[in-house]
Amino acid sequence: MTATLDVGATEINPVAKLLAALTLAVGLVLSVDWVSASTALILELILLAVLRVRLRALLHRGAILLVAAATTALTITLYGEPSGTVHWHFLLITVSDGSLTLALATFLRVLAIALPAVFLFLDTDPTELADGLGQVLRLPARFVLGALAGVRMIGLLGQDWRYLGYARRARGVADHARLRRAAGQAFALLVFAVRRGSLLATAMEARGFGAHSTRTWARPSPFGVREIALIATAFAIVAAAITMSVATGQWNFIGSR
Question: What is the pLDDT of residue 2?
Answer without folding.
Answer: 38
